[in-house]
TrEMBL record:
Pfam families: Adaptin_N. GO terms for biological process: intracellular protein transport; vesicle-mediated transport. InterPro entries: Adaptor_Complx_Large_Subunit, ARM-like, ARM-type_fold, Clathrin/coatomer_adapt-like_N. It comes from the Eukaryota. The keyword Protein transport applies. It is found in: Endomembrane system. The keyword Mitochondrion does not apply. Gene3D superfamilies: 2.60.40.1230, Leucine-rich Repeat Variant. Keywords: Membrane, Protein transport, Transport. It comes from Pycnococcus provasolii. The lineage of its organism: Eukaryota, Viridiplantae, Chlorophyta, Pseudoscourfieldiophyceae, Pseudoscourfieldiales. This is Clathrin/coatomer adaptor adaptin-like N-terminal domain-containing protein. Residues 26-491 form the Clathrin/coatomer adaptor adaptin-like N-terminal domain.
Length: 659
C-alpha cells in the first residue's frame, strides 16, 4: 500500500498507539489536525506525496471516531491525478469519508467517467469500485451507459466485467429505468454463457436483482435454461478451476446463487425443463447430504443443501416426485435434532416456512416429539422456531397434545415468549378443542398460569363461548369457583368469574353455615386470603392486591343476591382501612388505581369478539411483536362521593341485567 513508505504517517500511528488515555489521544489528534489544516492552506506548495500522506492521516483519524470537517476537497482532487497511487488514495478516502448524498461527489463524476472509458484496466477497476459503493441516482443517469458497455464488451478483462456487473446492480437499485428487458435481455443471456465462474457469480447477482421484482422475470425467460446448465456443470465437476473449489466443493457460492435465481422463476409448464431441473436438484441432495469432520466443509454443504431443499420441495410438490420429496423430508427431520445449533435452527425454520405444503405438514406431525424437545433448547432462537412449527403443525388429531405441552412449558419459558405462547394456546384451544369442557379447562389453566400475559380478547372470547353454550355454563361456573377457592386468583380470573351469574349462584348457595357474605367469600372455608377483620399488615403489595381482588370483587358481586348487598358494598369500599402491625389504622390500600376505580373495572361487561377477530389476533401479534395486553394506567386522583355513586349505579344496572 502507498502509506507503507510514508515515515510521517507511520510516526503518527505510533504516537496514537503510545497514548495512555483518551485525553492524551485527543490532544495528539487535535495537534495533527491543526498541522494538516495549516499545510492545506498552502496547497500550492504541496507535492503529490504530501497530499497523499495528509489524506491518509485524515482517513486514520476518521477511523478512530473523530469528526473530520476538512480534507474532502483534497481527496477529491487526488481522484483526478494521473498516477495510479494518487487515484488509489483518492478513490479509497472518498469512498470512506463521503456518502452518496454528499455534494462533493458531483465533482468527481467526470473524473470517474474518464477512468471508466479509459483503456487502463487499473483505472477502470478503481472507478467501478467507487461507483459500486457510492452510486446514487445521479450517478446512474450519468454512468450507466458506460458501465453497461464495459460489461458486454468482449475485450473487457474478467476483473473489469465482474466489477461492472456489480456496479450495474447498484445503479439499477437507485434507478430502475436504466435497464429494461428489451435492451438488456439478450446481453444477459450472453453473459450467462461465460466460462469464467467469477463473471458468472457477479452476473447472477445482477440477474437476481433484475428478476426479483414482481413479474420481473418477463424478458429474461431464456435465462432460466442457462442457469440450470450452469448448475449442472457445477454438480458434474466439468472444467471447474481449483481457484473456485472450496474444500472439494465446486464454487458453493455460485451454486447457491443459481438456486436462488431459479427460485424466482415459475415452475416450467413443459416437462423437459422441469425434469432437467429436478434431476439437478436430486444430484445436489445426494452430493451434499453427507457430512465430515471439517466444519467449514459442512457449512458449505449445508448452505447448498438448504437452498436445494427449499426449491426441490416446490418442484416435487408440483410434479408429484415422491422420491425427491421424501429425500428432502428425511433430511429435514434429521436437522431438527442435529448437534449443531445453527443447523437445528435452519431445519425448524425451513419446516415452518414450508408447512403450507401438505407433505411437509404430514411429515412434521409424525415427528412432533423432536420439535417438542426443541422447546427446551438452550438457544432462545431455536425455541422460538420450535414454537412456530408446533403451532403450524397442530390439527384435530394432535391439537390437544400440543396445547398440553405448551401449557407445561409455559411456567418455565422466558418472559419474552410467554405472551406469544399464551396467545397461541388460546387460539389452538378453541380451534381444536375435542370438547367444550376441555376448552374451559385450558382457558382457566391459561388464566391461572399466564394471567399477566393475556390480552383482554382471550378472556372476552371465552366468556362469549360459554355464554353461547348453555350446557357448558354450569361446568364453567364450578371450575371458576374452584379456581377462585384454590389460591390467590389473578385479576383475569376474577373478571372471568364475574361475567357469569352462575358463579354468583354457586357462591351464594355454597354458604352452608349461614355466615355473612364476607365470611363466605373470604375466610378459610370460602376463599384463601383475608377478610376485612383479619388484615393486619402488608407483606407484599402484589400479594395483598391479588388477595383483595378475590375478596373485593366477589363481595361486591353480592349486590345482585339480596337487599343487603348494596350496604355491604358501601362497607367494603368506604370503611376498608387496613391496620398495620402496630395496630395503627392506615390509609386505604394503595392499589395501582384509586380504590373505587380498581374495584369498578372488574364489573365492565366483556365485549363480543368474533372468531375472525380472535384468530386474527395472531396475525396482529406477528406484525407487531411488541403487542401486550392492555393495562389501566394509574389515575393519580381520589374520587368524590358523586363519582363513587356513579360507579355503584353503573354496577347495579349491569348486575341486574345479568341476574
Amino acid at each position: 500500500m502507498a502509506f507503507q513508505t510514508m515515515r510521517g504517517l507511520n510516526v503518527f500511528i505510533a504516537d496514537i498507539r503510545a497514548c495512555t488515555s483518551k485525553e492524551q489521544q485527543k490532544a495528539r489528534v487535535e495537534k495533527e489536525l491543526a498541522n494538516i489544516r495549516t499545510k492545506f492552506k498552502s496547497s500550492s506548495t504541496l507535492t503529490a506525496y504530501d497530499k497523499k500522506k495528509y489524506v491518509w492521516k485524515i482517513l486514520y483519524i476518521y477511523m478512530l471516531g473523530y469528526d473530520v470537517e476538512f480534507g474532502h476537497m483534497e481527496a477529491v482532487g487526488l481522484v483526478s491525478g494521473t498516477k495510479y497511487s494518487e487515484k488509489q488514495v483518492g478513490y479509497l478516502v472518498t469512498s470512506v469519508l463521503l456518502n452518496e448524498s454528499n455534494e462533493f461527489l458531483r465533482l468527481v463524476i467526470n473524473s470517474m467517467r474518464k477512468d471508466i472509458v479509459s483503456k487502463e484496466q487499473n483505472f477502470q477497476t478503481l472507478a467501478l469500485t467507487a461507483v459500486g459503493n457510492l452510486g446514487s441516482k445521479e450517478f446512474a443517469e450519468s454512468l450507466a451507459g458506460d458501465v453497461s458497455q464495459l460489461l458486454v464488451s468482449p475485450s473487457s478483462h474478467p476483473s473489469v466485467k465482474k466489477k461492472a456487473a456489480l456496479c450495474m446492480l447498484r445503479l439499477y437499485r437507485k434507478n430502475n429505468d436504466i435497464i429494461t428487458p428489451e435492451s438488456f435481455g439478450d446481453a444477459m443471456g450472453q453473459l450467462l454463457d461465460e466460462r469464467d465462474l467469477g463473471i458468472l457469480l457477479a452476473t447472477l447477482s445482477l440477474l437476481i436483482g433484475l428478476i426479483s421484482k414482481n413479474g420481473g422475470y418477463a424478458g429474461y425467460d431464456h435465462c432460466y435454461g442457462k442457469v440450470v446448465r450452469i448448475l449442472d456443470r457445477l454438480t458434474s465437476h466439468h472444467e471447474i478451476p481449483n481457484d473456485y473449489t472450496y474444500y472439494g466443493i465446486p464454487s458453493p457460492w455460485l451454486q447457491v446463487k443459481c438456486l436462488e435465481a431459479i427460485g424466482h422463476y415459475p415452475i416450467p409448464e413443459d416437462d423437459p425443463p422441469r425434469r432437467a431441473t429436478l434431476e439437478v436438484l436430486g444430484r445436489l441432495l445426494e452430493k451434499n447430504s453427507a457430512t465430515g469432520p471439517n466444519i467449514n466443509q459442512n457449512n458449505a454443504h449445508h448452505s447448498i443443501l438448504f437452498a436445494t431443499i427449499n426449491l426441490a420441495i416446490k418442484y416435487a410438490s408440483a410434479s408429484g416426485e415422491s422420491g425427491v420429496m421424501q429425500k428432502c423430508l428425511d433430511l429435514l427431520k434429521g436437522f431438527v435434532s442435529y448437534k449443531e445449533a445453527n443447523v437445528r435452527y435452519l431445519g425448524l425454520e425451513t419446516l415452518s416456512r414450508l408447512s403450507h405444503v401438505p407433505e411437509v405438514l404430514r411429515s412434521t406431525r409424525t415427528h412432533l416429539d423432536a420439535v417438542i424437545d426443541a422447546l427446551r433448547d438452550a438457544d432462545v432462537s431455536i425455541r422460538r422456531r420450535a414454537l412456530d412449527l408446533l403451532y403450524e403443525a397442530s390439527d384435530m388429531q394432535n391439537g390437544s397434545a400440543v396445547v398440553e405441552e405448551l401449557l407445561a412449558f409455559l411456567p418455565e419459558a422466558e418472559f419474552a415468549l410467554r405472551e406469544e405462547i399464551a396467545l397461541k394456546v388460546a387460539i389452538l384451544a378453541e380451534r381444536f378443542a375435542p370438547n367444550l369442557s376441555w376448552y374451559v379447562d385450558v382457558t382457566l389453566a391459561l388464566v391461572d398460569k399466564a394471567g399477566d400475559f393475556l390480552s383482554d380478547d382471550i378472556w372476552h372470547r371465552s366468556v362469549q363461548v360459554i355464554t353461547n353454550h348453555e350446557d357448558l355454563q354450569a361446568y364453567a361456573a364450578s371450575k371458576c369457583v374452584e379456581l377462585l377457592r384454590g389460591g390467590v386468583a389473578h385479576e383475569c380470573a376474577v373478571k372471568l368469574a364475574l361475567q357469569r351469574h352462575e358463579v354468583k349462584v354457586a357462591l351464594y348457595f355454597g354458604n352452608k353455615s349461614g355466615m355473612d357474605m364476607d365470611g363466605v367469600l373470604c375466610t378459610a372455608e370460602g376463599f384463601p386470603g383475608t377478610s376485612m377483620q383479619t388484615v393486619q399488615y402488608v407483606p407484599s403489595r402484589v400479594e395483598v392486591r391479588r388477595q383483595h381482588q378475590c375478596h373485593i370483587a366477589c363481595t361486591v358481586q353480592s349486590a345482585s343476591l339480596g337487599p343487603n348487598g348494596e350496604t355491604h358494598i358501601g362497607t367494603v369500599m368506604v370503611s376498608y382501612r387496613p391496620v398495620d402491625a402496630s395496630g395503627t389504622s392506615r390509609a386505604p390500600m394503595s392499589f395501582s388505581l384509586p380504590f373505587p376505580v380498581y374495584l369498578h373495572k372488574f364489573f365492565m361487561p366483556a365485549p363480543n369478539v368474533s372468531q375472525e377477530q380472535y384468530f386474527g389476533a395472531w396475525r396482529q401479534y406477528s406484525s407487531d411483536t411488541s403487542l401486550t395486553h392492555q393495562k389501566i394506567v394509574h389515575a393519580g386522583k381520589s374520587l368524590t362521593a358523586t363519582e363513587l355513586n356513579g360507579i355503584l349505579s353503573t354496577y347495579k344496572l349491569h348486575a341486574r341485567r345479568q341476574w
